[in-house]
Amino acid sequence: MRAIIHKWQKHGTVENLPRSGRPTKITIRAQRRLNHEVTKDPTTTSKELQASLASVKVSVHDSIIRKRLGKNGLHGRVPGRKPLLRKKNIKTHLSFARKHLDDPQDFWENTLWTDETKVELFGRCVSHYIWCKSNRISEKEHHTYIKDGDGSVMVWGCFAASGPGRLAVINGTMNSAVYQKILKENVQPSVCDLKLQRTWVLQQDNDPKHTSKPTSEWLRKNKMKTLEWPSQSPDLNPIEMLWHDLKKAVHARKPSNVAELQQFCIDEWTKIPPQRCNRLIASYRKCLIAVVASKGGPTSY
């Protein structure tokens, strides 16, 4: 109170006085311009914002722009990608989540999750940032893409709550016969290695090679029970998280040819910690809840 009285007696005001030092280059008007630009297009880069300010004779470094946006609650974040779902698949997506929402945890722990993925020699590791108001990106800000779109390797892999299973490199074109060979050589050994119970279930997507009559007959003869699966549902398969881990680890080793790429894939897959696998399955119900909340639409998983 004494300081306020002293300020009034000395300056005739209690408002904040002009401070010493260099004044900010980003005026209130420039700040409004920045806010308008990122609201209109959240993918605008700080360099583009710098050019926008330069057009109105405001010269400022792009790092200052990022700091100012941060002070105003706008942060650069990498949006996830989500599949473009057909209406029919949205319905089956939601139906699956509702049907399995209350399944006991040991059901998921005894599921062998499988999938194929392409690992590129010079992978698409470029991340595109957007400006958003919080640490969580809203569903509408996720990039929508059409699934399936060089030096690369195609691999088939599997895992369960207890850890990663076998990884197989796919040479040439995969058809039903090749897929059955992969299952024959890798599924049962993985089930044994991961110590799954006798009631274990095989998860696979609806790729035609997986659901063809010869493959279905092979699965029946080998007494492998499969989990019914909705189409276009990569967000329901936690192995997608492990593919991300694998590609990141492989690219960090900078393979220079396809042979190295193959070997690095095998090496890094075996290094995936069992704890990572366990956490993915422990939180699987949250994934199902997210699908129900989005009414069968894409989620951030």
From TrEMBL:
It comes from the Eukaryota. GO terms for molecular function: DNA binding. GO terms for biological process: DNA integration; DNA transposition. Residues 111-261 form the Tc1-like transposase DDE domain. Pfam families: DDE_3, HTH_Tnp_Tc3_2. Signal peptide: none annotated. This is Transposase. It comes from Cyprinus carpio carpio.
